[in-house]
Amino acid sequence: MDKAAEIERLIGPSLEAMGYELVRVRLSGGHRPTLQVMAERIDRSAMTVDDCADLSRAVSALLDVEDPLPGAYSLEVSTPGLDRPLVRAEDYRRFAGREASLETRSPIDGRRRFRGRLVGLEGDRVRIATAEGESDVPLAEIAKAKLVVPADIVAESARRQQR
To answer: Domain range spanning residue 119?
Structure first.
């Protein structure tokens, strides 16, 4: 089992008891790895800086006790954000109707990248409506997937930064 999955199993129940759901745990880097813990509130209300600080303290305490990572590492606790990754099967149901981009491990119908409106999940296949038509993508073949930030939100953000 990989370290990220081990850490997810280790911290998941405690974070859930605190009112949070893990979205993703990712370990990256070499000499001094970075552990990214992405979570959201179970009640789906907005995450605050205080939520992230509480999560960081809880994760640090759990990892200090269990010590699954030898040596030094950096801990990052964050929210999924607008361009949230789609990690679990439930994500494809929950965000049906939203625009997403998917990248597959191997070509499906001659392509590896799909961008369009999520139709949902049918069995073990993600249905996505692209400009070329609807495609069924096996969930097991998806290497990366995330929601696409709507253009109006990107434009509004750009306007705010120019002020």
So the answer is: 89-151
CA angle 117, 144, 42 (to 5 degrees): 75
**DSSP SS3 for 121:** strand
Helix, strand, coil: what percent of the chain each, to 5? 35, 40, 30
Quote the pTM value: 0.80
Asked if the model's pLDDT at residue 60 lies above 90, the reply is yes
d(CA 109, CA 124): 17
How many domains, in total, are found in the chain?
2
138 domain residue, yes or no: yes
Nearest to 13 by CA among 34, 42, 36, 33: 42
